[in-house]
Automatic annotation (TrEMBL):
The modification 4-aspartylphosphate is found at residue 62. Residues 150-215 form the HTH luxR-type domain. CDD domains: LuxR_C_like, REC_NarL-like. SMART domains: HTH_LUXR (SM00421), REC (SM00448). This is LuxR family transcriptional regulator. GO terms for biological process: phosphorelay signal transduction system; regulation of DNA-templated transcription. The lineage of its organism: Bacteria, Pseudomonadati, Bacteroidota, Flavobacteriia, Flavobacteriales. GO terms for molecular function: DNA binding. The keyword Zinc does not apply.
């Protein structure tokens, strides 16, 4: 017979750079799982070490931190700790970002705009089912069956944009790319802007992380 949720001593890690978010989530975890052990961190760079040190079973992680994007961290966590359950708790739109985190290894994606009851359900599902998907994400997963490219944001780029994005990800600058492709720097800059807009990213670090997940350099 399965042990009731409230009696399970599960080790959680809350990773978010806003203390009020961590505190609010810990209160809800305590309501759902009074026996749970909860650790917190505000730093993306501390997540890997804390998971190893504390024996974390469920990690609730924000998508963005001042010290980076958590996409590659999710992938690394899953590679090093295949049994860990990861819930992304983010203010980023589910429709635009959920699938790339699931592709990286996340077991669920929850919007910070969710009602408290949905957050409680997510906590319970992560412990009892090992995953949590909102109706929005479930719909995306169904669409993915018919359109496999949906999970790969790089598929939205044209051949030229993908070529230039790949060169940026390899560490080349505007001048190097312009010379290599025999085009003007202004053209490279314009294409870079289009790439960032299509991928919903703000900098090269995020672009590199997308390539690490979705494309072999």
């Amino acid at each position: 017979m399965e042990e009731p949720t409230e009696n399970k001593e599960i080790v959680f890690l809350l990773a978010d750079d806003h203390s009020i978010v961590r505190q609010g989530m810990e209160i809800l975890i305590d309501e759902v799982l009074p026996e749970a052990v909860v650790y917190q961190t505000s730093s993306l760079q501390q997540i890997i070490g804390m998971v190893q040190e504390k024996g974390v079973e469920v990690a609730i992680i924000d998508a963005h931190f001042p010290d980076g994007n958590s996409l590659s961290t999710v992938s690394q966590l899953k590679n090093e700790h295949p049994d860990i359950k990861i819930l992304i708790f983010s203010g980023l739109e589910e429709e635009l970002h959920a699938l790339k985190f699931i592709k990286a290894g996340a077991n669920g994606y929850l919007s910070k705009l969710s009602e408290e009851e949905d957050v409680r359900q997510a906590i319970s599902d992560m412990v009892n089912k090992g995953e949590y998907f909102s109706e929005v994400v479930r719909k995306l997963l169904v669409e993915l069956v018919y359109n496999p490219n949906l999970v790969n944001p790089l598929s939205s780029l044209t051949a030229r944009e993908l070529q230039i994005a790949s060169m940026y990800a390899e560490g080349h600058g505007n001048l190097e790319i312009a010379n290599a492709l025999d085009i003007k720097q202004n053209t490279v800059s314009t294409i870079k802007k289009n790439i960032f807009n299509k991928l919903k990213i703000d900098n090269i670090v995020e672009l590199i992380e997308l390539f690490n997940i979705h494309h072999k350099l």
